[in-house]
Design brief:
The complex is a heterotrimer of chains A (411), B (229) and C (407). Chain B is α/β, with parallel strands linked by helices and 229 residues long. Chain B has 7 helices and 10 strands. Chain B has one domain: Rossmann fold (3-Layer(aba) Sandwich), CATH 3.40.50. In chain B, the strands form 2 sheets. In chain B, strands 6-7-8-3-9-10 form a 6-stranded mixed sheet, with helices on both faces. Chain B has a 4-stranded antiparallel sheet with strand order 2-1-4-5, covered by helices on one side. In chain B, a hairpin with a 2-residue loop joins strand 4 and strand 5. In chain B, helix 3 packs across helix 4, helix 4 packs across helix 5 and helix 5 runs parallel beside helix 6. Chain C has 407 residues and is of the alpha+beta class. Chain C has 2 domains: 198 residues, no CATH class; 181 residues, no CATH class. In chain C, the strands form 4 sheets. In chain C, strands 3-4-9-6-8-7 form a 6-stranded mixed barrel. A two-stranded antiparallel ribbon of chain C has the order 2-10. A two-stranded antiparallel sheet of chain C has the order 13-16. In chain C, strand 14 and strand 15 form a beta hairpin. The chains are: A alpha+beta (411), B alpha/beta (229), C alpha+beta (407). Chains in contact: A-B, A-C. Chains A and C meet through helix 2, strand 3, strand 4, helix 7 and strand 6 of A and helix 2, strand 3, strand 4, helix 6 and strand 7 of C. Bound molecules: adenosine-5'-triphosphate (ATP) and magnesium ion (MG). Magnesium ion binds next to helix 1 of chain B.
Chain lengths: 411, 229, 407
């Protein structure tokens, strides 16, 4: 076997330039695919992280059916669910929330909004909108009249921090209830939808509007590491066995917009990967076929000397394997270098698109940074080695099919 | 029992709609230890006959029987195995594998036979010494003269100790002096080791060295003379 | 003569030329398809914002756009401004009054955005009438008929014929509330519209808001959304100081930039993809040149100039890329056409995705855009010439004596 590898290696370098160009093409494609994938993985991870922190957590707990239409009436008593879930390993924070469709009114304007009732202490540690606020801009307690409001909404209502406004919503009894709130903090995220509609208040105060003070619509569970998702989801589901009216769902289900944005983006990227790999495969077929066609005479001799066709085919496959392995190693090296750069420095999109960009309901950081994904990189390298072998199949079969006499008559 | 037997063998090549009758009704037998030449002008069918004897090709009609085995029904795999075990080849234009060194070329059939590397090297070194090309083991074919390349080709053919060595115009690319040396060498091997040599040539000086001259003309057997010394 | 020679040379090694050709065709055709689909997504995205809501151009009070100030209203007769009538590109215009409020039923209340419209005019601007799932578009005769989104209808559990109360703050400071009757329900796939938007007759809303004869904006559409900014620039000088014209790019700056950035990202995608193809071309022509070393030597010995040799090889690459382009563009166009006519419905796998203020629908659907053909075509020619250059140089620099000796 070693001898055959030795022979394959030597044959590979017969036409040095051709092999190097082919190698470069394969290695370049591997690098490209690995670097692009790592870059997207990094961007997606960032989107998910900010998405779950501002949104419904890595895992969200709802009343059954709430997700279908987010109806206000589908809230539940949290009892001690919050503290129970908090005890699970890997859970960083549990955020109880109440969502109330309401009308916000200043003396001049009114806007339809979704009032979010939160636990200010907990929310502040996680929610990126609150994190940037100073102490005196925070909601002081769950039953205070303090509100944190989106900058654009504030502007549309034509009020200033410290001023009062009224929110009106429908109470459980069917009548309209109003509450007077005071603007404490202002959120300026850059995202039109958020800045134009966000109102956060303490959940006790929010509950007064609808008469559901000790209830919640959502428990957003934030994990200390996204990889715990499956195990924590399983534990919460087990915990909820006694309460069939409540379910726990992953962020993909709770935030389909974000999950699908990632899916869609990744799918289009995969299509590009597919084209790249297809082109490279054609190139490899071309190189291997040329190299085989040139050597038909030699193959005739080898067959005449008593080599079985299968052995000859094996020899050609071994050449392809060495080419593939070399290209995979080289490409992965380049891919690692590129990834290293993208992790350390990243790409600054701000030069290309100065506006704040929203995708799938989250803002993405204009500096794109990659994530290391060694498993996937190796997988793609193996994949390419497989493609090289696949590309060698036709030339190998062709070489094995000639008779020694035909081969020797070549040229 | 004769070593190789051709029984009224014909070979027809098809080139599109055209048919070329390369050999017609050829019957020949070879015994072990022979030193025979296939002679005849260009296009007379020498290469075709050698290919049939060497099981590289199948006859259109007739039988090729080697060591009592009819190879007419053998698969390409079986034929390859048979060649590997029993037959050595020397080609006109040496046909060494350019990427391998001289020694590696000579070891090639042994490699196919899965002989361990150390044994192979030993055997080839001895052969190289016998053939007078010791010291050239690590050279590439491109760095060898025609005569040296052809000796390497002989070493390759001899390495697996075949019963028969077939050589298609082994001297055609060599000058007359080198050609004579090579022929002496082949005859020496034939006498010392008893290996059967069948080769083709249209060079009269080469033909005169043979102990049996089989003359072909237009695919027909013209004469078959054994010269007793 | 040189052309015939180049052409014949190409077909000397048929298999190799065909394989290289196929790599070029595949990359060009699939690129065109991919770009067509990306453009389709952008078009859906833009349409979701403009054709379902904003329109391509809007004229309004200068104070209105940023904060949508209830009091920044204009008289309805601005619909017939000469500046609008003179602009032939405008194919539809709709006066609108906007209000934000609560839509109430005994069981539930939902925050909504309500547009007061004139049905015949609004249908020239937005395409909601083509996206009805129940009932009918409100007619001018129904004085309080409302068109609401499907998400909203679902939350409020209403059907055509049901009554709703709209509550908001009127211009005189009072709380206005009045009865609406659901005429129809629409579904755009964009949750922001489906959950939030209500269309009702303009006179009805004027009465609720106590703004008789007033509107907030005139939304307009044109044939080619891409020239909206130019049309706006043409109109601006003819408008008085209390009226401004905005194109969709002003309304949705992030979308304008995403679409503008597409030109750059398209270039990047094309370049990256052609890199691998270019290396293939490079390889093929190196092989072909090296095989013909002896032949080039003879040509040069006969007095052919190095530049002509270079030209010959470059001509061969150019010829190959032109053939590849012809086939690639054709295949790309066929695939784009298929994706335009048929497309692939992805709604079973994904839901609509919001992006840069618009919505990407869950479907693969291509559109024809000249840039999607021109850029891959131009780049392919460039890349082939570039890839042909090294081998051509190599052939031109041969030493005739050494080359002839080679076998
Ligand atoms: N593969 C083939 N296909 C078609 N015709 C062939 C083939 N091989 C040989 N021939 C024809 O068969 C005839 C005998 O050819 P062969 O090669 O056996 O002659 P030869 O005696 O070896 O000639 P030379 O001295 O030139 O080598 C010739 O007419 C040749 O053209
Ligand atoms: Mg011959």
């Amino acid at each position: 076997m070693i001898d055959y590898f030795h022979l394959a290696w030597k044959n590979l370098w017969r036409n040095r330039r051709r092999t190097i160009i082919t190698l470069a093409a394969i290695a370049f494609s591997i690098m490209l695919v690995q670097a692009l994938h790592n870059l997207s993985a990094g961007v997606y991870a960032g989107m998910v992280d900010s998405g779950v922190r501002a949104g419904s957590g890595h895992i969200a707990v709802y009343q059954q059916n709430y997700l279908a239409g987010r109806e206000e009436a589908l809230h539940f008593k949290d009892l001690n669910l919050v503290s129970e879930i908090e005890m699970i390993d890997g859970v960083e924070q549990v955020l109880p929330r109440l969502y109330i469709p309401a009308l916000a009114q200043s003396s001049r304007e009114s806007r339809g909004i979704l009032l979010i009732g939160v636990d200010p202490e907990r929310e502040r540690q996680i929610n990126p909108f609150l994190k940037s606020l100073t102490e005196d801009a925070m909601i002081r307690s769950a039953d205070s009249r303090d509100a944190v409001v989106g900058a654009r909404l504030l502007d549309e209502l034509q009020i200033k921090p410290g001023q009062k406004f009224v929110v009106t919503a429908q109470h459980q009894d069917g009548t309209l209830h109003s509450e007077l709130l005071r603007v404490r903090g202002v959120v300026s995220s850059g995202m039109k939808d958020i800045d134009g509609s966000l109102i956060l208040v303490g959940r006790e105060r929010a509950g007064l509007l609808t008469g559901s003070s000790s209830s919640v619509h959502e428990l957003a569970v934030i994990l200390s590491n996204p990889s715990y998702e499956q195990s924590v989801l399983g534990q919460i589901t087990t915990m909820l066995a006694a309460r069939p009216d409540i379910e726990a769902v992953s962020w993909e289900r709770a935030m389909p917009n974000l999950a699908n944005a990632i899916k869609l983006d990744y799918a289009s990227q995969k299509f590009i990967f597919l084209i790249i790999l297809l082109i490279v495969t054609i190139g490899v077929i071309n190189t291997l076929l040329m190299s085989v066609m040139e050597r038909m005479r030699e193959f005739g001799v080898i067959l005449a000397l008593g080599s079985k066709p299968m052995v000859l085919r094996g020899m050609i496959m071994l050449e392809a394997l060495s080419l593939g392995l070399l290209a995979a190693a080289f490409g992965t090296l380049l891919g690692s270098l590129a990834t290293w750069y993208l992790v350390a420095v990243g790409i600054n999109l701000a030069d290309l698109v100065p506006e704040t960009l929203e995708f799938g309901g989250v803002i993405f950081d204009p500096i794109l940074r990659a994530n290391w994904n060694p498993g996937w990189m190796i997988q793609i390298a193996i994949y390419v080695v497989g493609l090289t072998l696949l590309a060698a199949l036709y030339p190998a079969i062709k070489a094995g099919r000639i008779t020694p006499v035909e081969g020797m008559r070549h040229h | 029992m004769s070593l190789i037997e051709l029984k009224s063998v014909s070979k027809i090549y098809r080139l599109g709609s055209q048919e070329v009758q390369a050999l017609t009704d050829l019957s020949l037998t070879f015994d072990a230890g022979e030193f025979a030449v296939l002679a005849g002008p260009s296009g007379s069918g020498k290469t075709t006959a050698l290919n049939l004897i060497g099981c590289l090709d199948r006859p259109s009609t007739g039988q090729v029987i080697v060591s009592g085995i009819d190879l007419g029904t053998a698969s390409p795999r079986q034929l390859a195995d048979f060649r590997l075990q029993h037959i050595g080849f020397i080609f006109q234009s040496y046909n060494l594998i350019p990427v391998l060194t001289a020694a590696e070329n000579a070891e090639f059939t042994l490699m196919l036979q899965k002989v361990p590397k150390r044994l192979r090297r030993e055997k080839v070194c001895k052969l190289f010494a016998d053939l007078g090309i010791d010291g050239l083991e690590d050279r590439r074919p491109s760095d060898l003269s025609g005569g040296q390349q052809q000796r390497v080709a002989i070493a390759r053919a001899m390495a697996a100790n075949p019963q028969v060595i077939l050589a298609d115009e082994p001297t055609a690319n060599l000058d007359s002096h080198t050609a004579e040396d090579l022929l002496d060498l082949m005859r020496q091997l034939n006498q010392e080791k008893g290996t059967t040599f069948i080769f083709s040539s249209h060079d009269d000086r080469v033909i005169s060295q043979a102990r049996r001259v089989i003359r072909l003309e237009d695919g027909y057997l013209a004469e078959d003379i054994r010269i007793t010394m | 003569m040189l052309l015939t020679l180049a052409f014949r040379n190409l077909w000397r090694n048929r298999r190799r030329t065909l394989l290289t050709l196929s790599a070029m065709v595949v990359s060009a055709a699939l690129l065109i398809l991919a770009l067509g689909v990306f453009s389709g997504m952008f078009k859906d995205m833009l349409a979701s914002a403009t054709e379902q809501y904003y329109g391509h151009l809007v004229i309004a009070h200068p104070e209105y756009h940023l904060r949508r100030d209830l009091y920044a209203h204009l008289p309805i007769d601005i619909v017939d401004l000469p500046a609008i009538d003179r602009e032939l590109a405008i194919t539809g215009k709709s006066p609108r009054l906007r209000s934000f409020g609560l839509l109430s039923r005994p069981e539930t209340s939902q925050p909504v955005e309500l547009l007061g419209i004139i049905p015949e005019l609004e249908q020239q601007v937005t395409s909601l009438q083509r996206q009805l799932t129940a009932g009918h578009y409100p007619t001018a005769e129904e004085h309080n008929g409302a068109l609401i989104g499907q998400g909203l209808a679902h939350k409020m559990k209403v059907q055509p014929g049901d009554e709703l109360v709209f509550i908001t703050q009127a211009a005189d400071g009072s709380i206005g509330n009045d009865l609406l009757i659901v005429s129809g329900i629409f579904a755009t796939g964009d949750s922001r519209h489906d959950n939030n938007l209500v269309l009702a007759p303009l006179p009805w809303l004027q009465q609720v808001l106590v703004l008789p004869g007033r509107i907030h904006e005139v939304a307009m559409v044109i044939d080619d959304p891409m020239i909206a900014a130019q049309v706006a620039d043409r109109m601006a000088p003819h408008l008085s100081g209390n009226i401004e014209v905005l194109d969709w790019g002003d309304l949705l700056p992030e979308m304008r930039e995403v679409i503008a950035a597409y030109d750059v990202s398209r270039m990047i995608i094309v370049t990256i993809l052609y890199m691998a193809t270019g290396l293939g071309i490079l390889n093929t022509f190196f092989m072909s040149v090296m095989e013909r070393t002896r032949e080039f030597g003879i040509l040069m010995a006969q007095g052919m100039r190095p530049w002509s040799i270079r030209g010959l090889v470059l001509l061969e690459t150019l010829l190959l890329s032109i053939i590849a382009l012809a086939i690639g563009l054709f295949c790309g166009a066929i695939m784009t056409l298929y994706m335009q006519q048929v497309g692939i419905d992805l709604s079973a796998y994904i839901t609509p995705v919001t992006y840069a203020g618009g919505t990407i629908l869950p479907r693969l659907h291509a559109v024809f855009e000249s840039g999607n053909f021109l850029v891959p075509a131009g780049m392919l020619l460039l890349v082939s010439l570039f890839a042909g250059f090294l081998p051509a140089n190599r052939a031109a620099r041969l030493d005739p004596v050494a080359a002839v000796r080679e076998d």
